[in-house]
């Protein structure tokens, strides 16, 4: 009975958190769209969708997501080949460079690309500022690693004998690639494309920085209606549309990931890597090198260079100015915002780790009956939902639900860490759960036969194995919370801003001093997230997720 109560509480506590801080705000948001003044009505939808601006926003969102997905897939497949099927000196470094953009805060990426295309930037003469092309390029920057690692992970495990047999029988390299390799990689390519579309459709920070009024998306339009026009009914209606788009992408992604998992089980245990050769690998290598240098490194290098450029030449003046408020642009000095970010990210990390640990322990159990297995499957899926709902929707939902008793948290400092923990929680579960599922159940059975109590089995086996994934989970949670901008832009108090909010405010103000401080603050944020993820990657267990 004690053990049953313990496991029930372990599942009930995270579920209560999810119900209060996710299901309730999202449900209230949906209700606001259908019941704005009490009785059911579609007037809010009619008003929103009768506006030509709304349809332009929806078209822009879908167009940006589709273009970003196609570009990321086309560029990522050659990168997957070079980094996962060939061997060459320094490959580990290139893999690390490819991975870092995925964990960078969205506002940092937006500022990095902004530094390229403003009038004084290296690409300023091309007129790309506030253009469709620069937004798509930033989306590819973010999601290139998703394609490379997802497709490369499956490609590295494909049995090469099928391709070798086709070559022996006279098939040309091109025919082998299109008739054997691509169909074998199809589950991974489709899964990666669905994920990239999901991330592109819910992009917020980069669009806010780069898009302006001409290329607003559903996410930015929700922010505009809420904060500028105070049109909560219209924002709720758009949020429902956004939920439908992102939810559909999440469903497709989940099904495709299941197909990828089945394909992954058909792997070979033999090494399929081969030494790099110019005749076979030169073309993909040139394309991959161009992407790594031109798309991934160039914006970050330009951001660093712009942060060091002052009116009198290169120097650290902008970094020194971080101790100020930017001539009154900010309510607090930037270094105080850094402290706010570190405190809120630390609190969010602790909360996400505790909840993620409980969820992972419960979901990793193996019930003997079908009902129990289905229940745990639903529980696992429930905690993945925040990954498919944008942080903007979550932040907006917080504003309209947690503003009255019994949970009036509008003036509380805990609201931002809670929102950040909600965003980080799915990533923590996705890191810890594979580690627990990889434990041989015979270890638990042997310990029980030898007289170990259930608590001792849990402590000495499950928790001992969890230590292998805890470092990576901590890194993901902290980096995600540190760079979170979508919900925080709604919830952060003016006197308690976080670093991403400060970067956005600085970069949106004219003047060399404000711009330079924004670039310097963005560099600090990028370095912080990269260092955290670099340390976490060194502790990555083999069983943890691949992206």
UniProtKB/TrEMBL annotation:
SUPFAM superfamilies: MetI-like. Belongs to the binding-protein-dependent transport system permease family. It is a multi-pass membrane protein. It is found in: Cell inner membrane; Cell membrane. GO terms for biological process: transmembrane transport. PANTHER family: INNER MEMBRANE ABC TRANSPORTER PERMEASE PROTEIN YDCV (PTHR43357). Keywords: Cell inner membrane, Cell membrane, Membrane, Transmembrane, Transmembrane helix, Transport. The keyword Transcription regulation does not apply. This is Iron ABC transporter permease.
């Amino acid at each position: 009975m004690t053990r049953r109560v313990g496991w029930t509480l372990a599942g009930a506590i995270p579920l209560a958190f999810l119900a209060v801080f996710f299901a309730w705000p999202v449900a209230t948001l949906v209700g606001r769209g259908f019941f704005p003044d009490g009785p059911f009505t579609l007037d809010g939808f009619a008003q929103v969708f009768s506006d030509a601006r709304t349809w332009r926003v929806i078209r822009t969102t879908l167009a940006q997501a589709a273009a970003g997905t196609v570009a990321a897939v086309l560029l990522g497949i050659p990168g997957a080949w070079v980094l996962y099927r060939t061997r060459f000196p320094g490959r580990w470094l290139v893999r690390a460079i490819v991975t870092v953009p995925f964990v960078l805060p969205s506002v940092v990426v937006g500022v990095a690309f902004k530094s390229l295309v403003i009038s004084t930037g290296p690409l300023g003469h091309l007129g790309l500022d506030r253009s469709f092309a620069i937004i798509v390029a930033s989306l590819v920057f973010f999601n290139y690693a998703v394609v490379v690692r997802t497709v490369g992970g499956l490609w590295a495990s494909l049995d090469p004998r099928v391709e070798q047999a086709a070559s022996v029988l006279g098939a040309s390299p091109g025919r082998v690639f299109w008739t054997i390799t691509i169909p074998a990689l199809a589950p991974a390519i489709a899964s990666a494309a669905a994920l990239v579309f999901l991330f592109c459709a819910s992009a917020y920070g980069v669009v806010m920085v780069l898009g302006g009024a001409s290329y607003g998306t559903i996410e930015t339009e929700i922010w505009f209606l809420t904060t500028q026009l105070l049109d909560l009914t219209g924002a709720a209606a758009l949020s429902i549309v956004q939920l439908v788009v992102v939810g559909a992408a999440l469903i497709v992604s989940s099904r495709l990931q299941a197909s990828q998992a089945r394909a992954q089980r058909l792997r070979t245990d033999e090494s399929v890597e081969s030494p790099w050769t110019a005749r076979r690998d030169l073309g993909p290598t040139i394309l991959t090198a161009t992407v790594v240098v031109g798309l991934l490194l160039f914006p970050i290098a330009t951001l660093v260079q712009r942060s060091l450029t002052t009116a009198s030449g290169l120097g650290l003046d902008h970094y020194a100015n971080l101790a100020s408020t930017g001539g009154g642009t900010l309510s607090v000095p930037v270094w105080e915002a850094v402290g706010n970010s570190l405190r809120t990210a630390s609190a969010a990390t602790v909360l996400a780790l505790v909840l993620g640990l409980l969820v992972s322990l419960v979901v990793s159990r193996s019930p003997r009956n079908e009902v129990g297995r289905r229940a745990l499957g639903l529980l696992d899926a429930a905690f993945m939902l925040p990954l498919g709902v944008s942080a903007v929707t979550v932040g907006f939902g917080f504003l309209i639900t947690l503003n009255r008793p019994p949970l009036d948290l509008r003036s509380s400092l805990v609201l931002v860490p809670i929102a950040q923990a909600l965003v980080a929680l799915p990533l923590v579960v996705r890191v810890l759960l594979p580690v627990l599922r990889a434990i041989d159940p015979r270890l638990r059975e042997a310990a029980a036969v030898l007289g170990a109590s259930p608590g001792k089995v849990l402590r000495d086996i499950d928790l001992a194995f969890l230590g292998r994934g805890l470092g990576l989970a901590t890194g993901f949670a902290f980096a995600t919370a540190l760079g979170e901008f979508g919900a925080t832009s709604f919830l952060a108090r003016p006197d308690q801003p976080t670093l991403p909010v400060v970067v956005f405010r600085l970069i949106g103000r004219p003047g060399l001093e404000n711009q330079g401080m924004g670039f310097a603050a963005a560099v600090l944020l990028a370095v912080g997230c990269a260092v955290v993820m670099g340390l976490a990657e060194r502790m990555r267990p083999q069983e943890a997720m691949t992206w």
